[in-house]
Amino acid sequence: MDEPVAPFREKAFGRFPFRSRAFIKIQEGCNNFCSYCIVPYARGRERSRALDEVLADCRQAVAAGFPELVLTGVNTCAYEDDGRGLNDLVDLLCREIPGSWRLRLSSTEPSPDNFGLLETMARHPERVCRFLHLALQHGSDRILRAMNRRYTTQEYAAFAAAARRLMPDIHLGSDVIVGFPGETEADFEQSCAFIRTMQFANLHVFSYSRRAGTPAAEMSGQVPEAVKKERHRVLEALGESMAAAFRQSQLGKILPVIFETIDGRGIAHGWSDNYLAVSRPAREVELRRIVPVEYRG
Ligand code: SF4
């Protein structure tokens, strides 16, 4: 039986050293029990902070001059306070906090149940960054089932397509694992083919490593390290070419950018809402403000 879980306050508010981003932790823990992951055992069951408390933290961060708020958690999509989910929280923050600031969601998990979140994000284009990091983990349904992931590749693709339809030029990033136990060459090829169709703007590739106490650690068909290394190399190269294609697709577009730092050569560096690195001579820009900038790569 599930144990009741207490709300939490630990490390709820983090400040980015350049005072341009405030990290607001809204959720902790995970109930998903993916077969390779230690997080549900190590960090406990899902729990969320009270919505009013999150709202107060966000107000405080905007009043303190942070132009970007980043909502964080193990899986921010699991946020839930008294029946109100992440889309309710996003909607409330966007409506209730005036001023020039923007909101970024981190650590989102794809789910066929989350289409409402996409609609809410799209309703606030001036506020919500066109950015989602949706951990895919594998592009073969057989391996996804063995991983105990909660979606099929078809559902994942439908979610990504809806995100792109509702928020054109959105930055879709993902995590993938190579060398999960039982992953054959055919599974890997299938994974690469699916990932290619997703055209991610960034891809984090991980080689599977055994975590004691998880079901996958006991599975047969552990993949040799040399094979994992080669598959890792192939997918990383694919990730780099997809990232380059995304950058190319944005050339000439006017993007809302927050410049954060100035280097020793007088160049200001910042990030667009769709998470592209942008640089300009510091004399041309203002730091820690949302400014429209033409993307030149
Ligand atoms: S991989 Fe993510 S969703 Fe799966 S159990 Fe770990 S933290 Fe939860």
TrEMBL record:
Which terms does the record give in the GO molecular function aspect?
4 iron, 4 sulfur cluster binding; metal ion binding; tRNA (N(6)-L-threonylcarbamoyladenosine(37)-C(2))-methylthiotransferase activity; tRNA-2-methylthio-N(6)-dimethylallyladenosine(37) synthase activity
Q: Which keywords does UniProt give here?
A: 4Fe-4S, Iron, Iron-sulfur, Metal-binding, S-adenosyl-L-methionine, Transferase
Identify the SUPFAM superfamilies for this entry: Radical SAM enzymes (SSF102114)
Q: What is its EC number?
A: 2.8.4.5
> What is the protein name given in its UniProt record?
Threonylcarbamoyladenosine tRNA methylthiotransferase MtaB
Q: Where is the Radical SAM core domain?
A: 16-247
Q: Which PANTHER family match?
A: CDK5 REGULATORY SUBUNIT-ASSOCIATED PROTEIN 1 (PTHR43020), MITOCHONDRIAL TRNA METHYLTHIOTRANSFERASE CDK5RAP1 (PTHR43020:SF2)
Name its species: bioreactor metagenome
One GO CC term on file:
cytosol
Q: Is Disulfide bond set as a keyword in this record?
A: no
Question: Which NCBIfam families does this one have?
Answer: MiaB/RimO family radical SAM methylthiotransferase (TIGR00089)
Name the coenzymes or cofactors required. [4Fe-4S] cluster
Pfam families membership:
Radical_SAM
